[in-house]
Amino acid sequence: MTTPSTPITYAGAGVDVEAGDKAVELMKASVRRAQRPEVLGGLGGFAGMFDASALKGMARPVLATSTDGVGTKVAIAQRMDKHDTIGFDLVGMVVDDIVVCGAEPLFMTDYIATGRVVPERIAAIVSGIAAACEVAGTALVGGETAEHPGLLGPEEYDVAGAATGVVEHDDVLGPQRVRAGDAVVALASSGLHSNGYSLVRAVFDRAGWALDRHVEELSRTLGEELLEPTRVYARDLLALIRTPGLDVHALSHVTGGGLAANLARVLPQGTFARLDRGSWTPPAVFTLVQQLGQVPVADVERTLNMGVGFVAVLPAEQADLAVRTAQASGLPAWVLGEVSDRATAVVQDGVEVVHGAKGVDGGAVQVVGTHPA
Start and end of every PurM-like C-terminal domain (predicted)? Predict the structure, then answer.
């Protein structure tokens, strides 16, 4: 056995424990702002603790949980060396999936893997996560930063998170509530959100567009557009659900798979939703991706949200109230389409009909018409 001429330390192997400790110190102030009264203990424990005694007042509390990441959008943050917004993308992808069933997201944890811990960079990432949790009304109760030298480059990192929420059993939203005659209301996205960035990056890289390029159609640089944070809907959606006079039947988070496929997941078998492209104009970035990359319409609609971040399904007579309620909170909304029985559905020939996706055998959705110029 050959022994090294000099001792090998953990730091020498690429893991800097002191840098990790410094990162924790830098993020403490941000995490303190993302709390709820039910949180017990502080940052640095082996586990985050949340007082669940309030659940005893619920008749049949149902816990909801979700986990997700940000995908290749982190590559944009790394190339721009701007790390304080990616947390909104992470929180939005996690907590807003929980709200789909009507649950209130209670607490969240995060995980950051990086090739080299740069305390200021880790603190910037966590500051965005904490700020987004504050917007969502969700407590950030803990997390982990792992240094993986040799697996990730020194400037590379990835983020993931998990959250838990609760809803009364009788208040669970979903396909079981949806009825023929319901309206579909769209809630606007803030842009690309966090899905489809492998396609988006491929389009702009092939075109040779640099991130600092000013794009007239976007009224800002390409990098600023691509790094636009995901809108966090949780608090506004919970307010919508709890609005007197509204009986929201289902919600759908428009993420990977696009509008039609994600709506189909929350529709019951035997129903058919017809959505009208004429009801909205997608933001310029979507048209730019499609035209610059010559991406087929069907492909871009299966990949990107096209300006619709969420949809709500509710009785048609309540649609106008839902739109006004959302708009009053600063969330653009409009009536997107309607739900019918499959037997009475108006199906447009030659237009794709999308059925349930991601293992869900749900309803069917058809998107028809053209977007306004």
Answer: 179-347
